[in-house]
User: What shape does this take?
Amino acid sequence: MTKILKFIKPYRVAAYIALILMLIELSVELLQPLLIGKIIDEGILNNDMSVVLYWGGMMLLLSLIAFFSGITNSYYAAFVGQNLGFSIRKKLMKKVQSFSFANFNTFPHASLITRMTNDVTQVQNIVFMGLRIMLRAPLLIIGSLILAVLVNWQLALIFLITIPVVVIFLVIVMTKGGKMFRSVQQKLDTVNNVMQESLIGLRLIKAYNRRTHEVKKFMNVSNNLKEQTASALRLMEAAMPALLFIMNVCIIFILWIGREQLQATNIEVGEVVSIINYATRMTTAFSMFSFIIMAFSRARASSERIVEVLEAKIDLEDEEDGKSLEQLKGAVTFEHVSFRYPGMSTYVLKDISFHIRPGETVAILGSTGAGKSSILQLIPRLYDPTEGAVYVDGMNLKDVKMDDLRKRIGFTPQESILFSGTVEENLAWGKSDATLSEMKAAAQDAQIHETITDLKDGYETKLGQKGINLSGGQKQRLSVARALIRKPNILILDDSTSALDLQTESKVLDAIDKYKCTLFIVTQKLSTAKRADKIMLIDDGKIIEEGTHDQLMNTSTLYREIAYSQSEQGAMNSVY
Ligand code: M5T
Ligand code: MG
Assistant: This one.
């Protein structure tokens, strides 16, 4: 919690103003019972109207001051709360953007979303409440106690017994409530998780008729959330009547003892009235407490969750003195690289070594799960190798500025990912200052220009959720164009031409040749592999064969088998 409160620092002036205004409101509230006592004892009992009017007017004036302090306090408290929320969200967003893939394994997307929205809101609320009423409650209790002692210490003795009882009671409730609300936030995470999954997989769910199953799953977790929240709230609700009971018993005692003292005439009516008034104010303050405890327990759980994200260790960070890459020729070297995904025990790459000269084309072939994508992910340093090292132009990736490296690499992942937005915006992802003619050139090279111009609004057509959805092959070509637009020195195509027919694919590859970049291409097609300067056959995380098409045809039985099976298919295709 204290770590989160540091975010208030820039807004501390507003926070102090809010606190001062709160103190003004509080003083008025504490003075009022004294004035009421005065009016009764000196005015009403003495039949002196002028005293009643004077102090009555005073009370009115003070109330007005308190009223305006209250309004202004709300304004400043809201200002601090909202700004705090904004800063925390900004910091969280920055942090999450710098997350490595390993970090995402510890924080699932849904959990990050809850943390950035709901959890921040909880903290925001507690800061608002803190500046508005939270401090007022304890101060009101302490102030009331002191003033009650000053008015009549014998009667005030009753408070000295009651207050500790109430405080102990509240501490017990607070500890239990805190635990329960932490679990509420976790349940909320699960609900978000299930909801997110079922929204992403909507089509699949429909196609497999899994709707009732998904609804049931959602109802289940949603019900858990309801039950947990309800029992946490029940605890809070139960605390309220218990609290009122204790305080009312206290008031009855005051009245009882007060009456006896009145008969003995060593006390005035006004004093009893003031003390009763302080007692009722304390009761209100205490009942405010159960509300505050609830918000506080939630906010504490939430702030812990926020801090967890903010303090997450990022395992893939730029070295302080990373070399900047002015230019890249495009040589790539793997030196005894072994790799396992963070948190996994089995190696998916085992002792991989190769050297690729600038401008060469490398085709990577292998069965599914062999480790092809894993090799490629190491080049833009999405992960660091577990053992061994990766070099570009002879420099270890760890010594190079990460942003510079990635700027010079065009990467199309195996699953084409497009963002909601226009075609143009999607292309500009590759290069934010790209001109329209650059976009068109890249789109032409990726053989997608014509498809785009045929769309309703051409390059301005909206894609994604509220726009047009493209076919698999169209998506692939668009993401190839996005990679080409930055004129990369190293281009990585992870099976990004798999959905294209042979003719279109060869046109795309012809166009890529002009870019003179080092090309890594994962493919299943021999026609593509044939063009490469080097073919690597990967199996079970190891390079089992490498060489050109002609060399492999001579030396590798496996490669010959692949060639044979594909030429058979080719023959069949030409027959039909
Ligand atoms: C190689 C495992 C996967 C497989 C092995 C991407 C990824 C993979 N793996 C993980 O544990 N976590 C991950 O995030 O690594 O996988 P690959 O490199 O994706 O294989 P591929 O590209 O050759 O396969 P494919 O199907 O794309 O042709 O054991 O479980
Ligand atoms: Mg793959």
User: Anything to note?
Assistant: The longest strand covers residues 332-339. The chain has 20 helices and twelve strands. The radius of gyration is 36 Å. The first helix runs from residue 2 to 5.
